[in-house]
């Protein structure tokens, strides 16, 4: 992408208040600093608090730029040359002619360009490690495609979205999905021993545990749940419709599998994406409905807390340097915020935001 494309993309995204996303397939071989130029793509794009200074974004504007008007007012009519013309001309003030570039006092010829604070710059890559050129300059978020979730109580879903769609299962993972659906316990165990990922998903977002659950293969489900427990599989992962393995087992009346999933932390309060249905709501089997109705949600909360602690212990072991630890703390703050949003905890959310020492972190996490 050339400087002019970057400039147009940046100014339009700023004007509309949307994310500007650059996809770098191979970060190590790419010097992101080579992109930065004062009059097309300033390095302050990494510092939202500085980017909205007219002295920073001003040099990126051109007289021929066109921006859709946001809101017309009576004062806009007859305001002189350029009014209503659909472009913004940004020029140095007369008093600044000949001054150093950083000292320019920029004037906007009209108000067509209206940068919005909701603008964000996002860089994505398939790499698991933060590129050295961005360490300490951007907040990093690792997306685990196997943990993308939907529905209620899914703080991680807001972070991960539906990233699982980006990768097809490998041949071994496809074989595991098929064996789980067919109820072939021996083949499932063989593939798991080969370290085949049971969290890999098919085209609709169903993993091996969900495939076993939908047809009631209790022993297969038990083998998957026991694999590298408690983090080897996720009983609360959801497919593209927001249905968890508990939803699918309950829908078909597989009471034994429903009980097994509940004992391993499957949340009966999880809701589907579009209809907001819980496993109880879609079950047509009375005994399954009774089991779901009397299940103690406190037990689920305890199991989820054990899983959370195990996940944090794993993350702590993987954080090898100060930058890793800082990024880890930011991800945990994001999870707490999203959890509070899920629970409509406005008071806790406000206190958490006020507790941040730096405004930059609030800006990075608030969306």
TrEMBL record:
<dbReference type="InterPro" id="IPR002110">
    <property type="entry name" value="Ankyrin_rpt"/>
</dbReference>
<protein>
    <submittedName>
        <fullName>Uncharacterized protein</fullName>
    </submittedName>
</protein>
<keyword id="KW-0677">Repeat</keyword>
<dbReference type="Pfam" id="PF12796">
    <property type="entry name" value="Ank_2"/>
</dbReference>
<feature type="repeat" description="ANK">
    <location>
        <begin position="241"/>
        <end position="273"/>
    </location>
</feature>
<dbReference type="InterPro" id="IPR036770">
    <property type="entry name" value="Ankyrin_rpt-contain_sf"/>
</dbReference>
<keyword id="KW-0040">ANK repeat</keyword>
